[in-house]
Amino acid sequence: MPALERVAKDIPSDLWLVSLxxxxxxxxxxxxxxxxxxxxxxxxxxxxxxxxxxxxxxVSDSKTLxxxxxxxxxxxxxxAIVGRMNVFGGAGK
Length: 93
Known about the structure:
The protein has 93 residues and is an alpha+beta fold. The protein has a single domain, classed as Gyrase A, domain 2. Helix content is 23%, strand content 44%. The protein has a four-stranded antiparallel sheet with strand order 1-2-4-3, covered by helices on one side. It is elongated and about 45 Å long. The two termini are 16 Å apart. The mean pLDDT is 88.
């Protein structure tokens, strides 16, 4: 599916997705984590510029968590993004 290829292309190196969902009515949602709010914002901006989302994506939930990795604590941002997917691509990039 070209829309999912576009999502994969836009994922920053410090952001990972945990779930993707598309309902019958084209409602789209995804959840994931990142080490920075900036990466989440850039990811949404790039995806929104595509013909598949038509600027419909936005953050519906976010939380700051702390994880311990190799004995060091670091901040991790948890997020949920929702919007509508134009499954036919429509006009645009």
